[in-house]
Amino acid sequence: MKHTISVLVENKFGVLARIAGLFSARGYNISSLAVSETMDPSISYMTIVVDAKDENILEQIEKQLNKLIDVISVTDFTKKEHVERELILVKVDYSPKEKNKLEAVLKKYLAKLIKHGSGTAILEAVGEQQQIRQLLEELSRFEIKELIRTGKIAMA
Amino acid sequence: MTGAEILIECLKREGVELIFGYPGGQVLPLFDKLYDSDIKFILPRHEQAAAHAADGYARATGKVGVCIATSGPGATNLVTGIATAFMDSIPIVAITGQVKTFLIGNDAFQEADITGITRPITKHNFLVKDIKDLARTVREAFHIASTGRPGPVLIDLPADIQMQEADLIWPQEVNIRSYKPTYFGHPGQIKKAVKLIAQAKKPIIYAGGGVVSSGAHLELKELAERLNAPVTWTLMGIGGFPTTHKLSLGMLGMHGTAYANYAIMESDLIIAVGARFDDRVTGRLDSFAPYAKVIHIDIDPSSISKNVRVDIPIVGDARNILGQLLEELKKIPDTKEWLNAIEAWKKKHPLIYKKEDAKIKPQYVIEQIYDVTKGGAIITTEVGQHQMWAAQWYQYAYPRTFISSGGLGTMGFGFPASMGVKLGCPDKIVFDIAGDGSIQMNIQELATCVCNKINVKVAILNNGYLGMVRQWQELFYKKRYSHTCITGPDFVKLAESYGAAGIRVTKKEDVRSAIEKAISIDNVVFIDFQVEPEENVFPMVPAGQAINQIIGGLA
Predict the structure, then answer these.
(1) Nearest CA to CA, how far is A92 from chain B (Å)?
(2) Count of structural domains within chain A
(3) For residue A30, what are the domain limits?
(4) Testing the interface with B: which of A67, A70, A72, A73 to mutate, by most B Cβ within 10 A?
(5) B7-63: pLDDT as tens digits
(6) CA-CA-CA-CA torsion for B282, B287, B290, B293, nearest 10 degrees?
(7) What is the ipTM of this complex?
């Protein structure tokens, strides 16, 4: 099962390597990872989505993260009410006659056309995983040339 | 002050009296200042030995051990020693030189990313990139190494920082917002544990290295005596409870006593104190202690419920928590029948070896070392059969008297570790019990011992094999002794060539007098005991089996 974990860490060099090393050394899998500075520049915020087979593994992941000296706190969002979002950029090819269809899809998902040239557009969308998945399904009828996702971020 | 001077002053303020280190290009500024320092400095003949010696010093004294190496190969040579300390939760601070800050990442001469390399084998590590951070870093390194679950910390110090000038700003207190170990058990958990203890009929105390490192041995003894509960221990827990005590079961697990293994399998309550249910202890996990509820006391939350399901976790320092338990204990279980059952197992399946044999049995050598030293020596070991025999056949009465690489199982640990032990405890007789394989892994330290008059005694149980691997090949690989037959030098001549003393023992009747003679010689002594070559360590539980599935060694 996928769990969304947030980790507050000291904003020092090498911290990301410590976190990544912990996961690789113990054979845990990171599905996505988003890192950024917080309002306090000495602290970074990581949102990690992990695939944990069972509760024991998840418990170990949390404990092992907490054990790292640079980790300030660990929260498993799966257990609490929270909002989560992901941002995607999609490059699609479309023919002129498909333009209206594309715009309809964008409108439906509150996605934005942020750049377009001859038959190619770069779209931006923000949403929950479910919405993003549906959007991508609908976009698949156009030709998706490139897709970039930020990974999930979450807030309680 | 220069960075090198700041470092040395900080080490002094941390109470460092002894450093093991090896010079090199990127620590030249530091070594130049060490030349004028009054901190005792020991130059081993290999950086790995510096790390093991610092580790041995820490294990024997409870203080933080310190080692220094240069960048690149000097630093990587420390790695095995750091990993050894990490697996056994030993507080050492390793200081490495690094290439100048502007060369880092440049593949400079003797550059290695040692903070990267040691990240998974240190409790924490630092690369000092600004001299202003140096004093605080040293302070934090010692704090992190010695508090909570202890462990090794590495400080990587570029050569230019060692030379820069700055004021020493000594932080009076260490305050790391993200590092606050828990020292006292949660009162609610203590109450639950007391309740569970009151209901037990077959309790057993399972003690690990945490008892030794937290100094909880007296509280442990009191708890055992108040509960009338038997005590078993891990390799790291040796010395945490007197072996000769009537409630002692000895070590459990793969080479534990049969009665310790039977007892834990039959128990209805395990009180685990500073132990981590390692695979060498539990054997096959799904059949381990099927009737037992588990109270697990450990300072490291991640050790709890990692391998074995725990009913009552109590996070904190073992000594504090045992104290809290002793205060709260009310109803004491009646363990008379339980102790009778254990007594019957002890009678039926004692630790044995064939004593009448005319050849020198390795177990006999260890018994004789115990007898001659009256249990007053500190024993270090290498890794292998001799290590298990040293765990089984010497009777330990006090903590910090058995110094061995438990978690990592590092061959070549015991001899350099014994140097640290002897320097930390100069009044003690220190015996490294070694095999002829292991001793050859750090044998160059003979020079260090002779040069610094570190008069340790090395008992080599010489069987011409890498014995533990040979034993597995005998039992599980149809006696196909693939590359386990090993030759060595003439240990007596070798010792003598270094200026040490050597004694060879080929007859059983000479064993005792050789030990007595070795102790009386005011020098490092190698005793080459030519022991029975194919003796096995028993009892034994094959890897992956339930720990009551014992082969061999049952009377």
Answers:
(1) 40
(2) 2
(3) 2-79
(4) A67
(5) 999 999 999 999 999 999 999 999 999 999 999 999 999 999 999 999 999 999 999
(6) 40
(7) 0.90
